[in-house]
Amino acid sequence: MAVIAVYSLKGGVGKTTLAVNLAWSSAIQSSRRTLLWDLDPQASASFLLGHEGRGKGSAQAVFAKDVAPDQLVVTTAIERLDLLAADTSLRSLDRLLFSIGKRKRLSKLLAGLEKSYDRIILDCPPGLTETSEQVMYAADVIIVPLIPSPLSRRALDEIVQHLDREHNGHGPILPVFSMVDRRRTLHRAALEAQPDWPVIPMASAVEQMAVNRAPVGVFAGDSPSGKAFSTLWRGIEARLARLR
Description:
Number of domains: 1
Shape: globular
């Protein structure tokens, strides 16, 4: 099993979009038994995968060990893709994790799912929080989406510095340019400065995910954005193979 965290210090950079589409690629493109674990109290990933239980308040109970993770897992309309949905109870997850003082609680919960899944995608809330600290310990690879701009690059540098300082031996960080509009001079300049970083274009197909409540691969797999997500996933799988 491998754990792939999709994380950003900033919100609004396409994090959830990336997590949902990578989960689809894992399940369909690579035929992996895949779980998307939605850790963001906004529950956007859960919504995009058709889940309606945002207000039930059970998501945090997993971390309190009041319920096992596999008891809350639900199937999705996508073959081999399951969901551990978020809800509003996660708003107080940082406080719970701080109070119990278990810095590797998420890692242990993930270990209990190892026999059931080949890939687990974590859609993480933004910011440097108790939850993000748990994610850093648990992830084999950390995907960081950023819009091509100086502020986003600054946020990425902060993440790298924090991990190097606080999490020796952390999983590799893979930056991904997200919501790219090549008509913009600033975006083109950023891409030229980092030509090897993956690029996910700004596209109407991505915006349609909220209407269709499905990953791009379900309804527009041959679109530029659909192909970009697929290419990115192949690169992630290649990186995971090298880590083994």
